[in-house]
Amino acid sequence: MTGSKPKIYVLYYSTYGHVHTVAQAITKGLLKSNTVDAELYQIPETLPPDVLEKMHAAPKSTVPVITPEKLAEADGFLLGFPTRFGVAPAQVKAFFDATGQLWSSGAFVGKPAGLFFATGSQHGGQETTAFSFLSHFTHHGIIYVPLGYASPLMFDNDSVIGGSAWGAGTVAGPDGSLQPSQKDLEIAELQGENFAKVAVKLSSDPAVGDDAAAAAAAAVPDAAAAPDAPAPAPIAAVPAGTAATEPVKNSTTGAPAAAPAPAPAPAAAETPKKSGRLGNFFAKLKKSFGSSS
Ligand SMILES: Cc1cc2nc3c(=O)[nH]c(=O)nc-3n(C[C@H](O)[C@H](O)[C@H](O)COP(=O)(O)O)c2cc1C
């Protein structure tokens, strides 16, 4: 947090504009609180223009496009996207797959984040979309802030309402012809207001936020010293039966690794830097897999 108010980013991906409208209502709620600074961003498109044209996608808004590095400046964020087969769209996955370097420096540790959505149909998977996305938050050490049943509107069964305890939302209809209702937007605004309260509380606690990220960065000396280097492979555990003599630490938190199951090492692990804690880890990992190199 640089100023007196926590900086909260609202970032979204939207093909047809529904999530964009919900994002605007959430931003309004954040600003209404007058306790946080709020900025609206869109996630980069990954589909080529001709494919978007075939999908009858709406023209892109003029909202600035965010980068992972820019997101790391925020003290917390609210992230919205439409459902694709009950999970997040590839555009959002691609954006988070580009945050490996930030993961290794603990840039998001202890920061709060919330989710919001759109689906084509009423039971098209808003909740599965949220649930299946939580792994990203967990690995980054991000604190997920659900909406809960914050509004009586969420018990309103008289009309189709988007959103749930997982976050605000809207139902676009099978052809996208529905627009976010007044009730959807009220719920979204409330999510912004409530999220601001949580962000203010967390940012005033020195145990989370900036201090936690600094501690995590210090636990990964290679990553902190070489910001342009490729992100190291995630360290899940030491396989059972290895010759490791010192406990392997989780590279983000510095805590001892808990899970015993070996994870398949991504390509980056094949050419590890042979220095520091990570270098030691990779050396042991290679030894345990019987590599002679
Ligand atoms: C490839 C694809 C998969 C989709 N999968 C689902 C789905 O599983 N459930 C659902 O209700 N809607 C699904 N939809 C509809 C989108 O969720 C809907 O178009 C979107 O919520 C509209 O939001 P937007 O205007 O912000 O893009 C899908 C759309 C596409 C293009």
What does this structure look like?
GO terms for molecular function: FMN binding; NAD(P)H dehydrogenase (quinone) activity. InterPro entries: Flavodoxin/NO_synth, Flavoprotein-like_sf, Flavoprotein_WrbA-like, FMN_Rdtase-like_dom. It comes from Coemansia erecta. Belongs to the WrbA family. The chain has 293 residues and is an alpha/beta fold. It has two domains: 204 residues, 3-Layer(aba) Sandwich (Rossmann fold); 67 residues, no CATH class. Helices cover 35% and strands 11% of the residues. It has ten helices and six strands. Strands 1, 2, 3, 4, 5 and 6 form a six-stranded parallel sheet that branches. Strand 1, helix 1 and strand 2 form a beta-alpha-beta unit. Helix 1 crosses helix 7. It is globular. The C terminus is likely disordered. The site of flavin mononucleotide (FMN) has 19 residues, from helix 1 and strand 4.
